[in-house]
């Protein structure tokens, strides 16, 4: 046995505890498999139509589908606040547009963590942020990766912003005009929205902007204060409904002045739990309304149950709607119903652009991308698309052309679905192996410190560590061999990238020695405690004055 002063033993235990926590956190906040940094998609990289043997004149970025676009983001807007009984009661104008107007309604699913800054990133980049963004939410740094706001500025689009100053911290030099409101004064649910609305009368009459973003915080503050069933929710929803009406009426009044139709988007960044909070993965927190309102859409005859889309789908849909390149890291899929009034050739063109962007991301993010089901289907759809374009340019008008076009459309949609799913799983995959290793270290240290309390409080304040006992020496070597074998099995059979599998064998062996040592010391301490027969009595004697 080797004796250690309790102070030295405590320091060693603290260091081991910090190391175990670091390994666990490295697994819980995994680095992305592929990081593009600040690289941006370029219009010059846009592929042309996949023609076979003929030349196509569709080789550039498609023209915009919409002129002025207004994004009205209501913080913590649950889908049932619009599509449920509260929406019918407190948001009659919006419900009329949803049920009978020129609109498309969806339930947009937000990935956890359901807090504001990661959700803004998801909507503007099309990427799925991780839990590390919850920490960054307190001091949002400039968003350097490719995003919708940067692409709009690069294309000469003029963007205005009013609302939550998180946007200003993410995009500090992107807005032509802005006015931020802070989200930290949760008790304020009145002025925080009035400071946004006060700009509308002047801005809506101006013609010097292309994209207007409004972020209202009042509903979120009410949720934190009194919950979703508060008497304050109804008046706030009515206030938001009046703003939707104001914006929609003003946009309609200017339709004759522009060649392109306007687009009004009503959405939420995340929902609200039954207690008024958010951040988790309950249905009320992840399900948000997404209502697209435009004269470009045909009016509805009846209200249908809203279909589900991913919140990340807004980035690719809005990018193509504004005539911009899709952000490079986008995982979202084009919402096809936005193109319902467009020709089949245009629909295939937009789906091909989205598929091409996702296929490049698959190639750069998944090592065995040739075996990916979505990628293989995209290659097939691209070839079928080329055959369809050839028939189309040759003037073929037979039923064969129409049937082939519908087939290509379905192939593209399936390819987008599978590629987006594969990429989403890759990005959202936690490093479970590293998390398990870190947890084992932390649990062993905590238990060891607990059972060593009597010796630490004794007069000698010394602890005995087994180093020469044959039993513990054999146990130590067997445990080292067992962990090494597990490490080999896990790292040769796993399909995901594990941080602990990529470290050097020397570091891995050091960790195995640490775990085995802690286990032996813990077993030795427990055995000595129970062998004495009266551990509790001994501890009481030590604690008595």
Commentary on this structure:
- With 545 residues, the protein is of the alpha/beta class.
- It contains 23 helices and 10 strands.
- It has an 8-stranded mixed β-sheet, with helices on both faces. The chain has a two-stranded antiparallel sheet with strand order 1-10.
Taking pLDDT < 50 over at least 5 consecutive residues as the criterion, the unreliable ranges are none
Instruction: Determine the structural class based on helices, strands and strand pairing.
Output: alpha/beta
Q: Report the strand count.
A: 10
The main sheet orders its strands as 5-4-6-2-7-8-3-9
Q: Please, what is the average pLDDT?
A: 86
Write the layout of secondary structure elements.
Elements (H helix, E strand, L loop, with lengths): L1 E4 H23 L40 E6 L5 H4 L1 H6 L1 H9 L2 E7 L6 H10 L6 H5 L11 H7 L4 E6 L1 H5 L6 E5 L9 H7 L2 H4 L7 E6 L1 H9 L6 H21 L9 E5 L15 H4 E7 L13 E4 L2 H9 L22 H22 L7 H21 L5 H29 L4 H20 L1 H5 L4 E4 L4 H24 L5 H4 L2 H28 L2 H9 L2
Helix pairs in contact: 1-18, 15-16, 15-17, 16-17, 18-22, 20-22
């Amino acid at each position: 046995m080797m004796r250690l002063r309790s102070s030295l033993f405590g320091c060693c235990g603290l260091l081991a505890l910090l190391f175990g926590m670091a390994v666990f956190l490295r697994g819980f906040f995994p680095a992305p498999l592929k990081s593009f940094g600040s690289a941006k998609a370029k219009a010059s990289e846009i592929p042309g139509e996949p023609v076979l043997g003929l030349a196509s004149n569709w080789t550039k970025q498609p023209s915009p589908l919409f002129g002025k676009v207004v994004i009205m983001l209501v913080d913590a807007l649950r889908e049932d606040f619009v599509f449920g009984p509260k929406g019918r009661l407190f948001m009659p104008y919006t419900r009329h547009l949803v049920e009978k107007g020129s609109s498309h309604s969806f339930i947009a699913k937000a990935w956890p963590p359901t807090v504001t800054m990661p959700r803004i990133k998801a909507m503007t980049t099309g990427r799925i942020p991780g839990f590390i963004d919850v920490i960054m939410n307190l001091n949002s740094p400039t968003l350097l990766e490719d995003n919708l706001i940067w692409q709009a500025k690069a294309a000469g689009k003029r963007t205005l912003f009013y609302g939550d100053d998180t946007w200003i911290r993410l995009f500090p030099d992107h807005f032509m005009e802005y006015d931020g409101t802070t989200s930290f004064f949760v008790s304020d649910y009145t002025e925080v929205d009035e400071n946004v609305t006060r700009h509308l009368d002047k801005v809506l009459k101006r013609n010097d902007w292309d994209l207007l973003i409004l972020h209202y915080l009042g509903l979120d503050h009410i949720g934190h204060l009194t919950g979703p069933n508060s008497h304050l929710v109804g008046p706030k929803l009515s206030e938001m409904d009046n703003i939707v009406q104001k914006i929609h009426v003003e946009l309609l009044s200017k339709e004759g002045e522009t060649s392109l139709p306007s687009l009004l988007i009503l959405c939420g960044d995340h929902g609200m739990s039954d207690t008024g909070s958010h951040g988790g993965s309950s249905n009320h927190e992840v399900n948000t309304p997404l209502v697209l309102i435009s004269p470009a859409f045909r009016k509805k005859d009846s209200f249908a149950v809203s279909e589900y889309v991913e919140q990340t789908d807004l980035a690719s849909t809005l990018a193509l709607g504004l005539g911009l390149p899709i952000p490079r890291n986008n995982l979202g899929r084009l919402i096809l119903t936005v193109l319902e009034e467009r020709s089949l050739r245009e629909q295939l063109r937009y789906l091909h652009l989205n598929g091409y962007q996702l296929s490049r991301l698959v190639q750069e993010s998944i090592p065995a991308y040739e075996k990916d089901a979505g990628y293989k289907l995209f290659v097939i759809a691209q070839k079928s698309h080329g055959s369809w374009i050839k028939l189309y340019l040759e003037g073929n008008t037979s039923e064969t052309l129409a049937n082939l076009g519908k087939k290509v459309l379905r192939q593209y949609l399936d390819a987008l679905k599978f590629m987006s799913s594969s990429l989403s799983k890759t990005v959202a995959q936690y490093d479970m192996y590293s998390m398990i290793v870190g947890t084992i270290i932390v649990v062993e240290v905590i238990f060891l410190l607990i059972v060593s309390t009597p010796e630490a409080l004794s007069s000698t304040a010394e602890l005995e560590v087994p180093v020469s006992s044959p039993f513990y020496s054999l146990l130590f070597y067997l445990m080292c061999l067992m962990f090494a074998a597990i490490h080999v099995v896990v790292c040769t059979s796993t399909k995901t990238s594990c941080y602990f599998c990529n470290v050097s064998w020397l570091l891995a062996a050091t960790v195995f020695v640490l775990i085995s040592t802690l286990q032996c010391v813990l077993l030795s301490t427990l055995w000595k405690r129970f062998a004495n027969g009266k551990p509790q009595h001994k501890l009481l004697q030590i604690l008595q004055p």
